[in-house]
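Kindly inspect this one:
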Amino acid sequence: MRGSPPSDPDSDRMWSLSTFRLTDPTGRLLGTCQTYADITDGYRAERRLELLTNAGAGIGATLDVARTAQELADVLVPALGDVAWVALSEAVLEGDEPSKMSGPGRWNLRRIGVAPPGEGWPTGLPAAGAVPPALPNHPLLQRIGQGQTVLLPDLDSVVAAAEGHSELAHLFVPEHGHSVIAAPLFARGLVLGTVVVWRTRRPAPFGQEDADLLTEIASRAALGVDNARRYTREHRAAVALQQRLLPAATTDTPAAETVGCYVPAGGGAEIGGDWYDVIALPSFRVALVAGDVTGHGLPATATMGRLRTAVDTLADLELDPDELLTHLDDLVQQLQDEAPHQGDTVGASCLYAVYDPVTCQCTLASAGHPPPVVVRPDGTVEAVEMSPGPLLGVGGMPVETTTFDLEPGSTIAVYTKGVIYRDDHDPDAGLWRLTDCLARFAGPGRGLDGVGHELLRSLGDAPARDDMALLLARTRAIAPANTATWEFPADPSAVAAARQAAAGQLAAWGLDEVSFTTELVVSELVTNAVRYAGGPIGLRLIRENVLVCEVHDPSNTQPRLRRARWSDEGGRGLFLIAQLTTRWGSRYARSGKTIWTEQSLVADLGVPGLLP
């Protein structure tokens, strides 16, 4: 028990009190005897062991640098001292290593963890913020920089250490502080920061045993801080890589206005392989993509980058959504073969949707991905009914397409499973939450700026265990007055008729300056269709920010651009088209193909070398 013997006023010592009965041989009570035994050393040894045990269990349980620092301060107060703080290098807070070349005067420390918190913290002593480079050449600070613990056992030594720097005393010396220990957080040859413990209320000063105890605790805590720092660095690198691999957050095309957002996983989970994409396709169409790679960490992010690049390439070929996902499935199987030891982590889901602002129709296909949600102009919200195929990498199963009307002003949301899979692991409940939030935040008349992050925050406060990627697209339509369509038979006379029709429409649109070039393009494309494909032949002009010319024929033969020799009588048509237009290409349909071209709506200056 603790007590003070009658002759010893030192109440900081620990005493064991024993009481004995004094009796004579007959058993008659003569009196009592009390003895005191000094058990201070044993008691303190037991308390030190308990403090070490608590430090081992309570420090470094998370991979958060600031929280680890606070855990260290909480362990030390009141078990060892009355006031404690932990200051870390700003480089450590960013996940970097403090420079070995930096001396104590250039540590750039920041006070992170303090105890006691709140009102118990000494008045006038800064509880947070940057620590000024005090006493940069002081011997005590030099010792800390070398990894040694500094003990100032009494007020005289504290005053002597601060001599000549009284203006900084209020930053480092708490009120009534009379004894202090400062230990470095030393790990792998680097000083990550310092931990300082003061005694202000209890009268007993710190001793060497206390300094040794703090040194051991600080060395264990330094490993926790360093582990958290390394995780912060890796997590930051993965997030930076993920964000660099994602497209621009906002796009604005004739087909749709889009806003995308990505939120990395929280709660200690590694970064994942979620992505979204917006791909501008010819004829003013737009592709909306969302995908989710299995697993976490840099391998998943790298796989995501390869898949997104593949989707961009396949989209440029203008494949149907189901055919595109079939080719993407082949790529994932190839990735599995390249890394058999990671075969269980190489997999993905993907949704690929194409919206056409001319027909106001959306065609999509899904490989194991959740359905998109549509907010109609009248405010109704619904998940698109579709039949998703298997995950990418499974192979052997077909992928079905779904086509539905999408009115101008509708908002379509494509997302990854982290958006709807929350703590309850109920996708149906998550989908209901998403539709409810979309109705509130992305309804008609509400802008999309900032809606994505606001919507994700409204889904739940707890950090998600999986990444969340969300893409919102507000659809638009090409006005019917900006399109013109004709159909011609496979007859040589159709060439002149097509040129005349195109010229008349351009005159009606006030685009006479591009009439000459467009007539040449129409003439070449229709001539090739009559000669090699047969009829019927479709011609369509679309005017928006550029002029699109499309010629459709029933043949599935892919046109090839080549450079004709000087003796060849043909083979120059596509070469001329490539020179006359901004870009050109072809795409297949259920029956036949469509060759398209794009022209900038500027004055037609002709083609140098073709005409005088």
In short: Residues 208-245 form the longest helix (38 residues). Confidence is low (pLDDT under 50) at residues 6-11, 604-612.
